[in-house]
Specification:
By secondary structure, this protein is α+β, with helices and mostly antiparallel strands. It contains two helices and eight strands, in the order ββαββββββα. It has a single domain, classed as START domain (Alpha-D-Glucose-1,6-Bisphosphate, Chain A, domain 4).
């Protein structure tokens, strides 16, 4: 499915979808273990959970990404096995990311979206290319990691 972006107004949004030849349970295990992201995607260099237990609404994770400052992400929505969204930053420049998966005949379809919102979102426009690159790389990396030894 083609990627979509919308960088108009006071928000920027980018969405991409990838088909993964692996069971949804496998994909969810990888995606929800956010502290392990540095092992499978080059878009995250360090990830440190700031709480214990399974990912849940209110869970916080500090992520460091290449050429970006360290940020704390807080889970705002979660449907175990299907979806989680999290957010980082103040209202004036808020980053939101969603991770959705669904089963299909071939395995799992994952949709990743990233948005920059708030009154200062306009000033983040120079990062649009980096946002696209990071989201696309995360999707490709998730696919490669989940399909390797997935048993599907």
């Amino acid at each position: 499915m083609p990627a979509k972006d919308d960088f108009r107004g006071k928000a920027m949004r980018y969405t991409t979808t990838v088909a993964i030849d692996a069971a949804p349970q496998r994909v969810w295990e990888v995606l929800s273990a956010v502290e392990s992201w540095p092992t499978w995607t080059p878009t995250v260099t360090t990830a440190r959970r700031l709480d214990e237990g399974p990912l849940r609404v209110g869970s916080r994770t500090e992520l460091h990404q290449p050429k970006q400052p360290s940020r704390v992400w807080t889970v705002t929505e979660l449907v175990p096995g299907e979806f989680f969204a999290w957010t980082s930053g103040p209202r004036l420049l808020r980053l939101d990311a969603g991770h959705r998966l669904r089963a299909d005949d071939e395995g799992t379809v994952v949709t990743l979206d990233f948005a920059v919102r708030g009154a200062l979102a306009f000033f983040a426009r120079p990062l649009a290319g980096t946002i696209r690159e990071f989201v696309d790389t995360e999707a490709r990396s998730l696919k490669a990691h989940c399909e390797h030894d997935s048993g599907v």
